[in-house]
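Exercise 7.
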Amino acid sequence: MKVYYEAGKLDRKWVETYCWGDWEKCIRYQMEERGEWHPDWMLPDGSIDEGLKDAG
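Solution. The predicted structure, written as tokens, is:
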């Protein structure tokens, strides 16, 4: 998420809401805690943003 945000590809709301806010609600975080794979372009709410696929 940091790479996409710093590249201007991801809105600040994602970082504020999940990374700096209620990170335990982040689907990416939950999956990582369970050792499950997720694509880098999965947003914290679990949705997939194909537009980020080649942006990172």
